[in-house]
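Appendix B. Extra example for self-study. Work through it before the problem class; the solution is given directly after the inputs so you can check yourself.
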Amino acid sequence: MIKAGIVGGTGYTGVELLRLMATHPGAEVVKITSRSEAGMPVADLYPNLRGHYDLAFSEPSVDELASCDVVFFATPHGVAMRMAPELLERGVRVVDLSADFRISDLDVWAKWYGMPHESAVWAERAVYGLPEVARDAIRDALLVANPGCYPTAVQLGFLPLLENGLVSTGHLVADAKSGASGAGRQGSVGMLHGEIGESFKAYGASGHRHLPEIRQGLQAAAAGKVGITFVPHLVPMIRGIEATLYAELNDPADFERLQSLYEDRYRNEPFVDVMPFGSHPETRSVKGENTCRMALHRQEDSSIVIVTSVIDNLVKGAAGQAIQNMNIMFRLDERAGLNAPALLP
Amino acid sequence: MIKAGIVGGTGYTGVELLRLMATHPGAEVVKITSRSEAGMPVADLYPNLRGHYDLAFSEPSVDELASCDVVFFATPHGVAMRMAPELLERGVRVVDLSADFRISDLDVWAKWYGMPHESAVWAERAVYGLPEVARDAIRDALLVANPGCYPTAVQLGFLPLLENGLVSTGHLVADAKSGASGAGRQGSVGMLHGEIGESFKAYGASGHRHLPEIRQGLQAAAAGKVGITFVPHLVPMIRGIEATLYAELNDPADFERLQSLYEDRYRNEPFVDVMPFGSHPETRSVKGENTCRMALHRQEDSSIVIVTSVIDNLVKGAAGQAIQNMNIMFRLDERAGLNAPALLP
Amino acid sequence: MIKAGIVGGTGYTGVELLRLMATHPGAEVVKITSRSEAGMPVADLYPNLRGHYDLAFSEPSVDELASCDVVFFATPHGVAMRMAPELLERGVRVVDLSADFRISDLDVWAKWYGMPHESAVWAERAVYGLPEVARDAIRDALLVANPGCYPTAVQLGFLPLLENGLVSTGHLVADAKSGASGAGRQGSVGMLHGEIGESFKAYGASGHRHLPEIRQGLQAAAAGKVGITFVPHLVPMIRGIEATLYAELNDPADFERLQSLYEDRYRNEPFVDVMPFGSHPETRSVKGENTCRMALHRQEDSSIVIVTSVIDNLVKGAAGQAIQNMNIMFRLDERAGLNAPALLP
Amino acid sequence: MIKAGIVGGTGYTGVELLRLMATHPGAEVVKITSRSEAGMPVADLYPNLRGHYDLAFSEPSVDELASCDVVFFATPHGVAMRMAPELLERGVRVVDLSADFRISDLDVWAKWYGMPHESAVWAERAVYGLPEVARDAIRDALLVANPGCYPTAVQLGFLPLLENGLVSTGHLVADAKSGASGAGRQGSVGMLHGEIGESFKAYGASGHRHLPEIRQGLQAAAAGKVGITFVPHLVPMIRGIEATLYAELNDPADFERLQSLYEDRYRNEPFVDVMPFGSHPETRSVKGENTCRMALHRQEDSSIVIVTSVIDNLVKGAAGQAIQNMNIMFRLDERAGLNAPALLP
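Solution. Structure tokens for the complete assembly:
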């Protein structure tokens, strides 16, 4: 049984890790830390865990976490880059769900996250944990940088186009929408039900932290420079991300083979589902599940390929993908703990 | 491996049975019927089942269903009472999620359901499937009448009071609230998002079909006549029932021992959770889970005991309880297939 | 043109006063204060006011407010009792939307609000502003204590029964449900969309501050002691309160005349609408409107009368009723500014 | 007092016309027809109209409608083109809220709406009723084709760019999102709360009826051919449309003057509000109001201009714009009946 620890477990990502790990056949959470809630049973904070966990939050302590096989960081940015190195040096493998190790260019990281990066060494050694791109590297990684939620939905949707050089890379558009849990469990006025219920808006339209992460991934896939406009929006629901992606085919004749190209690309991926051409994936179809579901579309006489891609931001966009990465790292069945269908309706 | 069939699988109860059975270690769905959708893969109707089921809907046929060990009826009332007897006579055990066999007084049944009952013989032999009351009878039952959603939340909340004769039984009040999935998946104007979103109302305040079922259960527990006022309400959410119950203690001194009485009553029940006195159970704490979670309250100087009780109407209120009953009937672990924590947030 | 000021205008009650006053033909808001947002245009905080108001928040100052004809307090409890007296002494009339002057027994007030009352003199002179009960007194009041949201819905629903001595007053039950705006615009974790969306729960079941206010009003109507159990619940919507009320008729024969009794009681009330017997008022039918809409119900063979009553908690439960009171106090048409139908859907 | 009639008043557009007209100072609804609900008081169908209207639905009859000054068609497509001509010939002016007269190329119309057009004569005479473009023509029009909801939000957002030839017109993108009321009040399974609550999806991604209408308007503004990709999405809320628009500036230096260009273009428009550069308009800021609110954005080093534009689909996207058009046609104050601020929260 793999022993897992969680640092910073009071947020939505933390409770989602606990929910999914509760039924994992080959791993268990033995330690969860929270400075603010130390001593409190996790089931007191999250009543859905009553009867599933006896565990209580404890003070963050490297010594105690060092007994784990793997530690998940579900912390705000800036924490993992300070705390993970010591764990790594003591042989604990780390999956960081924060943004600390996602961006390889540390100047870019510093600019978007407003602080200098403090662990260039481990940033260099970290593997960006998108299994559909880097499964082999993840297998042997000591430190996995778990991708952001929007970047997961956007990259998986664009990858086949860019890897095959089929589209003009100058002006990609990613119009993305997320439920409110993406903003975390912070008591801000702006995320009150009274503020975001029955309303819809864009936010971060002039620049969002996930933009450089998306661009980095797309450029790697395209093996060249990519121009991408990314606008996130807030949907009055709790879970789910939908990304509608627009790109211009270099040769409209390629529309003929797009569907099979996507199906081939993801045929062996346990967590990517390509629907029939022209389908409309719904976020509810992946609620609670680790799947990225997508479909392709074309409008009459147009050279624009449209991809619609959905994930659960807390699962494939965070905790589920982290467990998928753990499964890969520890040679467990990649689907272990991630088998249950989405909750629909 | 127990082989299960589902009759009438296109509604919310049907897809929920499929969702829960997908990870059941000791049973599998081998047959699902729908007259209207025969031939369609279940995953085409319910995209959350893509990758989990190859099964397609088939025409209802007793001959084909007869090869199952157990058949779930997820049909409108009036179907099971006509179709189940033939299956039962061929040795197939039945869990009926409709109302056909819930009411033992068939005149009462006929009045509330607007048609004569057509199977007095099996109505007599049916066991009302509330495991917390009738586990032993369920174990050997050929035909289990799975309780209604409101009746489950209301009965479990009142039982310890009535079984111990602690309250005045003349004027119980059950003020209950349900999410929209309780109305099923019918295309009626009244259940449109545009009609019920951002609104709240009572319905059926002059009399609802679950009233006689509730009364029957409470009277059995009280071993006497019970006066109960039951008003259901519609909440702008999808899943969840909350029931707030009011009863007058015969002796206010009994407030001292109520909490331990409830805890003792349900200590060994795998799916009833009594929270600390004065807690407020939330429906989201059981979303997707088979638990009934409850708490007790007292207002200053009052002899009224207040019980708040929550379930997921599609799980403990329907499909989950049906699987719990199947587990009991087939000597499986009662928790099999029902182990995952609720989806929160 | 009546000149109105608002103290504490950054909350939901404040913006609702501004919304309704924007089209009031006989009164206008000339002053709005907020210590935290002084200097900010109200339309920057509330974009729905863009194009409707040039007004900015200013520091609270009795001198400046003294030029108003009337001042609305939309403040947390404890503010009006300290600040209103000075305004009143300078001849400004006050409508206090907070709880400071609602409870005449100041010991009770102190116990529920956790501080001693600081203005016994004005508490004595304040008129409880439920126009359907105290229109004449309101007309001449210097200080009106605007009723709470739950107390408005509950009192209006029970009044005809109590005024006519038709029900047993020992064990009334008021099961009430409110949208999230009732909790105000405070950045607490518990009111995040991620916490309360898709969920339902009771809260304050062991005692809520509106209980003594409700009891006081009901006892006045009954001219005697009233036992009332009041349980509030949180609905995943923004606006709206529904109260389902239960009382036992002393003489079930009175069911015959209840409907006409209610219709007569409220016939001349511009903001109370009695629907046909057995109707189910929806909160959306009063969204944005100052109406309390109600209906009566009876279950078969029962002596329990059920009343369902709905209001918009921010309108008839707060800002709208405050404007209604202002209209009465200044001999304006009682419906002025309150004429628009509810927003449905 | 202008006398108005409504044909097909049982849908959301019909009730919204009634809501807004209830407080219109210069016009009143004297006739409303519905074949299915003839005889029923409008307030029985829509309880928010109780106390505001005595009117009942009547059978559609040209003779009776002919006494109106203006008739609104709130009907499915295909009705107005058959019924409006006779009214027009009898001197009644018509505002058609359906799609019948929006597309000038009747072959295009026939293709998208699946039937031949039956009134080429009046299609030719109809004025497309976007006041910000065609106010003068509307003033004298006998027949106004009220724009669609998406086309209103998209056109108003793009207009200044296209009228001034600032962007590449080959590959515009309009990613639009709508609340559920846009689908009308039809009892379809797909629009149940249980189906669309807590979910988000694109629909019509391969081609939606509003595409040719949008293209026609943009081409008129650009005075040339325009390539536009338009993808609508369904948001789990009732009212509101947000459109995020993407276009490439021919000369990125033009970013300097975009804000003032937009402000100048709409300075005198009573129902268009340009927010400061980089703002994020929310749909709730226009809920119930006739305003289109928009803002401009630029991402670092990008030549793509982003416009976010919001309307209430039932007001500026339907009934409100229809009343605005009526006001223009009858020389009333253009804001008459449309003065109230949006309902927020």
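Self-check: DSSP finds twelve helices and 13 strands in chain C. If your reasoning did not lead you there, revisit section 3.
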